[in-house]
Amino acid sequence: MKIFNVGYKSSNYYLIDADQYCLAIDIGWPGTINDYGRQLRPAGKRVQEINYLIVTHFHVDHAGLVQELKDKGVKFILFDMQIQSIAQMEAVIQKKMSYKPINLEDNIIITLSESRKVLQSIGLSGEVIHTPGHSGDSISVFLDSGDAFIGDLRPENQIMEDDIVSKNSWLKLKELGAKRVNPGHGHSFEV
Ligand SMILES: [Zn+2]
């Protein structure tokens, strides 16, 4: 398994090459599909060679290209608890952004409790957990290797004292055994 940061425009997007299958975690702003494709070159991949996509939450800098990837054959793994956030994101996207709305009919919709089985089927050992704090729909992808992809959950040392929700999300991540944290913005860090 290899992990690549294929981010741009001050956001991190990740590509996990699990030998047989390739999983993307988060993707960029609307209208930036060419930037994204360019960032895949060091990983030796083209957009069409990505098999699956998961987004950590529905903010436009993390989910703005979902439909464009799907149109290139990428299968979108959508968690049932995230579905209602799509409309919320799309309601605030400005027209000038050349955004392609997400087709709700052709996604792979699963529950978080099914995530381990689904990741297994694409060659990855790990699970997806609910880690709210930054947004209610925020999830983290945890791999048993200790790598965690947390989207925009704040680093633990930047959480306000009374932000119990974010603190609980970190508790869950640490209980699972998160060691290397790959955030949506900024550098990766060790726990
Ligand atoms: Zn966000």
When the domains are counted, the total is 1
Ligands present:
zinc ion
For the biggest sheet, the summary is: 6 strands, mixed
**Helix content estimate:** 10-25%
Q: What's the architecture, going by CATH? A: 4-Layer Sandwich
Distance between the termini: 21 Å
Q: Record the strand order, biggest sheet.
A: 1-2-3-4-5-6
Low-confidence stretches: none
What's this entry about, in short?
With 191 residues, the protein is of the alpha/beta class. The chain contains six helices and eleven strands.
How does this structure look, described?
InterPro entries: Metallo-B-lactamas, NDM-1-like, RibonucZ/Hydroxyglut_hydro. It is a single chain. Helix content is 24%, strand content 24%. The chain has 191 residues and is an alpha/beta fold. The chain has a single domain, classed as Metallo-beta-lactamase, Chain A (4-Layer Sandwich). A 6-stranded mixed beta sheet has the order 1-2-3-4-5-6. It has a 5-stranded mixed beta sheet with strand order 7-8-9-10-11. Strand 3, helix 1 (33-39) and strand 4 (52-54) form a beta-alpha-beta unit. Residues 57, 59, 62, 134, 152 line the site of zinc ion (ZN).
